[in-house]
Specification:
SAM-dependent_MTases_sf, 7 strands, globular, transferase, Methyltransf_25, methyltransferase activity, seven-stranded mixed beta sheet
Length: 232
Amino acid sequence: MMKFSQRSYTQEFLDRDDIPFNDIKRNMQELDVINTWLGGHGITLSGIKELLQTQKLEKVIICEIGCGGGDNLCAINKWCEKNNVAAFFIGIDINAHCISYARERNPSISCEWITSDYAKVMFDQKPHIIFSSLFCHHFSEEQLQKMFQWMHANSSLGFFINDLHRNRLAYYSIKILTAIFSRSYLVKNDAPLSVLRGFSKSELNTILSDASIHKHSIKWKWAFRWLIIVKR
């Protein structure tokens, strides 16, 4: 009987260093479809909107860590253009192939694409907002404490996290859906495993507390996501 009371620490295929980039590319393309149809991009936009309520800016600087192919930044850029919000973006990913793909795929976005471990990036000007989407579940609790501290220290308005709720229904639903519709072995393996590596609300509260971040909100969003917002 599979247990959902504790996080899994089984490594996802995507975290290995021997996966061909063409396979990673298909994985990113399918995740973009999943984020579009299951509301993931909408949750990210909710985080942007809430943090922008705190202050009116001439131009907002938005940074994503673990940006992959840039589909989240593309969705935000479309919203900004539609709502007359001037924005500059920063996309950070440790995988140089992902950054090249993101740059090629999003030529019209005003964005600096950075190949680096996020923790090694030094900003000339702090981004107003830093966020991650489906990134945190790849890390241990100790690593997340440092990540949250870095995001807090390097954002001027605040940061937010869009990540997975570990839930039995979420696990079996995504397992069935990807088995039927996915053409990516990465998605078939990693999507259900990602749910098992996801979080309960109490776990997120503990990680934030251990990172000395006490003022935050954690909201449950469909489909089985958490939106964590920390305002400066």
